[in-house]
Amino acid sequence: MSDDRSVDGAGEGSADDLTHTTAEGDVQMVDVGDKPDSERRAVAAGEIRLQPATIEAIRADEIGKGDVLATARIGAIQAVKHTWETIPMCHQIPITNVDTEFDLEEDRIELRVGVETTGKTGCEMEALEGVTTGLNVVWDMVKAVEKDADGQYPDTGIENVRVLEKEKRQREE
């Protein structure tokens, strides 16, 4: 499936196919005004690598800052809703639903964020923003127990952020 934010399906190709620049090389927002509304969904995922003891502390709700996953869920949802403010060429889109799902493994937490909208452009950037912010919130909540004696984070890392799926369905009228 092509990138919904490109014009006429241009996704790969030459510099002449770039949709966010003018012929003169100036940055521009893509005009989606003539595109029909469609139901869209995107799911992104990523993971944060943590020490096993940190994962156990999260499971037992023993992190001093509070409920890590509840706070990360709120952060992810806020990020989805504000993507247009942080990604310069993203359109402000009506978010109709956000799903967040955490999977705790022995040494990592995976976060999946599903975003739905009905509009003229896709929502994969919103899903990615939800994942990265949600994982950053986890890091912020656990940094006191993750850092080593030198104040560094040798076991902590955000990895494998990606779009898992993207759907576009034309609205039936």
UniProtKB/TrEMBL annotation:
Residues 1-39 are annotated as: Disordered. Keywords: Lyase, Molybdenum cofactor biosynthesis. InterPro entries: Mo_CF_biosynth-C_arc, MoaC, MoaC_sf, MoCo_biosynth_MoaA/MoaC, Mopterin_CF_biosynth-C_dom. Pathway: Cofactor biosynthesis; molybdopterin biosynthesis. It is an enzyme of class 4 (lyase). GO terms for biological process: Mo-molybdopterin cofactor biosynthetic process. The keyword Translocase does not apply. HAMAP family: MoaC_A. This is Probable cyclic pyranopterin monophosphate synthase. The gene is moaC.
